[in-house]
Design a protein that fits this description.
The structure holds two protein chains of two kinds. By secondary structure, chain A is an alpha/beta fold. Chain A has five helices and seven strands, in the order αβββαβαβαββα. In chain A, helix 3 links the parallel strand 4 and strand 5. The mean pLDDT of chain A is 92. By secondary structure, chain B is mainly alpha-helical. Chain B is built from six helices and no strands. The radius of gyration of chain B is 32 Å and the shape is elongated. The N and C termini of chain B lie far apart (67 Å). Classes of the chains: A alpha/beta, B mainly alpha. The interface between A and B is medium-sized, with 14 and 15 residues.
Chain lengths: 174, 161
């Protein structure tokens, strides 16, 4: 009996580990930014290139930074959620237009709707690198003191928005 | 027929060559003409993981981000930064995962020590098994009848040869 039991237990343990392995999402690399200050930048505002935006201007309020681009197909998937978010939530939503042509970006926003309070153009992608962006779209939640509290990699889902992001914002605002 | 096949071969070859040309123009657009610097760029990029195509280094990958990061490495090297400083710059942004050789810390303890632990476990099991077997063998006793039978079997075998 014992002879069969031991290999069976080993097999079960292996099965559990493989099962856990299947649940992991290797594309979602833990971000080193959680709990750290959002990196500084100063970029021209899309459509109003003579003005610039810096995260400093958001000090004192909780805000959301969404990295997008007109060439990014997955951004189109999450876009309706962002439009909806902008309509129902008062939290400022800032767009970081990553490695994009400003004309193409403006046309894209015209076509699909502009949920952003403003978007900044990161034409060379340097700010993207500073924020550790590797898979557009990405979404950051930044608190009142400018600390990154959450990073969502890939397109937002209704689930992630309603169960993680909106409760977190409410929590940070209270 | 032969002429036709030559034509087809030539056509295919020209496609292949133009294809290669295209691939090269796509890869690493800004390479400096300083071979010593390029060698160092390659050395550092070989230690950085491409986060878009996770099983490649940024040296191997032509993904957009990999090209950007290679340019970043090139720029920082030409500004005189050390390899350590550049690896630190990258881990500050992308986490330990960006290093192709993971650092030894609490989270990677099992990764580094796991194989040795498994080998040790295997050795312990092996030694125990051998000891147990030896004990069993030394305990075993045979009756005179059994010994006689074994001898007969052995004799028959030898006799047959």
């Amino acid at each position: 009996m014992r002879r069969y039991l031991i290999p069976f237990v080993i097999f079960l343990v292996l099965l559990i580990f493989l099962g856990i392995g299947l649940q992991l999402k290797p594309r979602e690399v833990p971000s080193p930014f959680i709990g750290k200050s959002a990196p500084m930048f100063n970029l021209p505002v899309l459509g109003k290139e003579q003005t610039s935006f810096s995260p400093d201007q958001m000090k004192g309020q909780v805000w959301v930074l969404n990295v997008w681009a007109s060439w990014c197909a997955a951004c189109r998937d999450e876009h309706p959620l962002l439009v909806d978010f902008a309509k129902t939530q008062s939290t400022p939503l800032i767009g970081l237009d990553y490695k994009d042509k400003p004309e193409a970006a403006r046309a894209w926003l015209k076509q699909f709707g502009d949920p952003y309070q403003l978007s900044v153009s990161d034409i060379k992608g340097q700010v993207g690198i500073d924020y550790g962006v590797y898979g557009v779209p990405e979404t950051f939640v930044i608190d009142r003191s400018g600390v990154i509290r959450l990073k969502h990699i890939g397109p937002l889902t209704k689930d992630a928005l309603e169960k993680k992001i909106i409760p977190l914002i409410a929590n940070l605002q209270s | 027929m032969k002429r036709f096949s030559i034509l087809v071969t030539a056509l295919l070859l020209s496609f292949a060559i133009s294809g290669i040309g295209f691939a090269q123009s796509n890869a690493a657009p800004s390479v400096s003409d300083n071979p010593a610097l390029e060698k160092r760029v390659l050395e550092v990029s070989n230690e950085l993981r491409c986060l878009v195509c996770q099983n490649q280094t940024i040296a191997d990958s032509n993904a957009d981000l990999a090209v950007d990061l290679k340019n970043q490495v090139r720029q920082q090297l030409s500004e005189g930064r050390s390899k350590q400083e550049i690896l630190k710059y990258m881990t500050e942004r992308y986490g330990d995962f960006v290093l192709y050789k993971p650092p030894f810390n609490a989270a990677t303890l099992m990764l580094w020590l796991g194989p040795f632990l498994l080998m040790l476990l295997g050795l312990i099991v092996l030694v125990r098994q051998i000891k147990q077997r030896k004990q069993e063998l030394s305990k075993e006793t045979f009756s005179a009848q059994e010994i006689e039978r074994a001898r007969q079997l052995l004799d028959r075998k030898l006799g047959n040869q």
